[in-house]
Amino acid sequence: MLDTSFFLDAVKNKDEFIDFKKHCKKSQIILVTIDPVAWEFTRGTYGNELSDRLAVMDALVDQYLPINLVDISRDHVPFLIEKYQRIGSNVSIVDFLLGALARKHSNDLCILTKNPKDFPLSFFELKSHLLLNGENFLQAYGVYSFKQKSFKSSKTKREKDVVPF
Fold first, then answer.
1. For residues 120 and 107, is the Cβ–Cβ distance under 8 A?
2. Which pTM value belongs to this model?
3. By C-alpha distance, which of 37, 27, 32 is closest to 4?
């Protein structure tokens, strides 16, 4: 699952990131993101800049994951709020949604980001890292997954009591 930081670099180095996408396709890796990442990435842009950013996303994203807010709110929000509060993190709503989806799909979904502070190692695991280099840049990304095994039986009282909307 691609974070906004990935797209911010991709818009500056399109050819190298398109090559990365081709490598992922050969390796049968599906590149996904969510609509809120697109909103964050295109916020404040218009005209040609907006068109360029949307074209970059179209070229790199295989699929946009749907977000079921009722499901996430009931099963993942209370847990993640508690975990982020314990470490004093002020995470953005977009990163919070990425984290909730990573928790929901912990067996088969990872987050690709440059921002480790948004996905703390106390409840996310750094599975790998990725270096993308081009003629004039070198970018490092972490590949994070949710540490589901560590939290299998740690439902909070709030999680147990929440009823669907």
1. no
2. 0.84
3. 37
Query: Rounded to 5 degrees, what are φ and ψ at 118?
Result: -80, -15
**Which fold, 4-161?**
Rossmann fold (3.40.50)
Assign 3-class secondary structure to the chain.
CECHHHHHHHCCCHHHHHHHHHHHHHCCCCCEECHHHHHHHHCCCCHHHHHHHHHHHHHHCCEECCCCHHHHHHHCHHHHHHHHHHCCCCCCHHHHHHHHHHHHCCCCCCEEECCHHHCCCCCEEEEEEEEEECCCCEEEEEEEEECHHHHCCCCCHHHHHCCCC
Q: What is the pLDDT of residues 79-104, one digit of tens each?
A: 888 888 888 778 888 999 999 999 99
